[in-house]
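Hi everyone, sorry if this is the wrong subforum. Our group has a chain we'd like a structural model of before ordering constructs, and none of us has done structure prediction before. Sequence below.
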Amino acid sequence: MTFDVVYGLSPLLVVALGALLLMLAEAFGKPNPQGLAPTGEVSDAGAGRAGELGMGAAVVLFVGAALSLGVWLAGPDNLVGLELTRPYLIWDRFTVFVCFTLCLGGGLSCLLAGGYLTEHEIDRAEFFPLVLFSTVGAMALAAAGELLTLFVALETMSLGVYALVGLRRTPRSSEAALKYFLLGSFAAALMLFGAALLYGATGRTDLAGIGQAIAAIGQGEGPGAAQVLIALVLVVVGLAFKVSAVPFHMWTPDAYEGAPTPATSYMAVAVKTAAFAVMVRVLLIAFGDERLTSWASGWPPVLATLAVASMTVANLVAGRQSSVKRMLAYSSIAHAGYALVAVVATIRSPAAEGSILFYLLTYTVSTAGAFGALILCGSRGKEAVSYEDLAGIAKRHPAAAMAFSLFLLSLAGVPPTAGFFGKLYVFQAAIDAELYVLTVVGLLNSLVGAYYYLRVIVFMYMREPAPGATLAVPMRSGYVASALVIAAVLVIALGVLPNVTLEWAAIATVGRS
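Answer:
Right subforum, don't worry. Here is the predicted structure as tokens:
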């Protein structure tokens, strides 16, 4: 390998190497007696070391984000030999932008875990190698230009996340992990069947080659149209499961609620970002033929239906939740619907791909911050779970309430936060694509979604705790506070000065067949 190739792939290589080193550090290190439960029971070598391992994992991921920025500034097209990784890994600006977002979201989740696992005496230091290995899979998934790479990367990402959901080892956590694993395996099997059909029909496994073969249908050669359409349906269903679009969302609320909150944060930002990245690449390269991007016989009306269902169902159900964590789970489903609007707009609007990337970045910092603020609002034995738990917390801990309010306003799309511009550019791309009905539905759902975000703020600032109710007591953690500061700065910066990031997102497009 030349230096250019190593440098170009450095974000992926650094995270992979960091995962191996952290696994060794977790396995062969010495337990920290001061960080153990009062019983002093030692479960493994990583016991009581969540803080230091969390910091190590966060540093590795932030270095990966910094290297992604460096590769972006150098220009992947200018790095000699980097094209040799094709078609297995397509390392273009689209991939680099997604890798930056993945590393940023993963790093924030590790900082949150460094404080959360210690505070709640969950001596499961394997959390951090699992996050790093899952991030490697997510980065490879975003870069996948070939069906075999796509499947291996998808499973690498997913297996680690399945384990993260069951990390707490309670009945609820185990049930959530099992449900996620079974449904995830079923969705992966559907994608694998779709891939097998595509290979059988086209004789190709690379996305560009599949796209060229599909373009030849009806010209005296090429695969059968029926076989391709069946494969398209199977692939779309598998990807819809990964982005938790309605009606393939049933695993999401249980998995998000049963997992430790930092794991929930990681699932919400990293898994969704990688899934949307590979969805865009597969649909635009492998299924980018004009007949498959038409409203008569293609995937746009299917995704538009999923978008409307995801936004509407999730927002209506989220408003009826009593658990804040479960509300945020349904919120993530609604945000998947907004992002799907931009995916549909890619058929007509050149700006749609950039709006997807910018939206995923703003969603990442806002969601990681929201879950981080929820973590900060509750300590061991006195966690903030329901709306009632948060009643009056603004008087007891104004900093935690202020942080939570900022991230909720960003998720609601209130200016001048990052979330406002994320939604603005998505809907602008939809208007450019003449998807007026979809835009109106998205705007109406944004108004509905604002209700349950503002409801949390009302409880924090305008409600008093019920007499005799258990009060959530905010925790003290430098790791959680650091994550919140980073997320808050980015939410404000992307809201006040979005132009530079949006310009970068606009040129980070996938190559089409």
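For your construct planning: The chain is about 70% helix and 0% strand. Confidence is low (pLDDT under 50) at residues 36-42.
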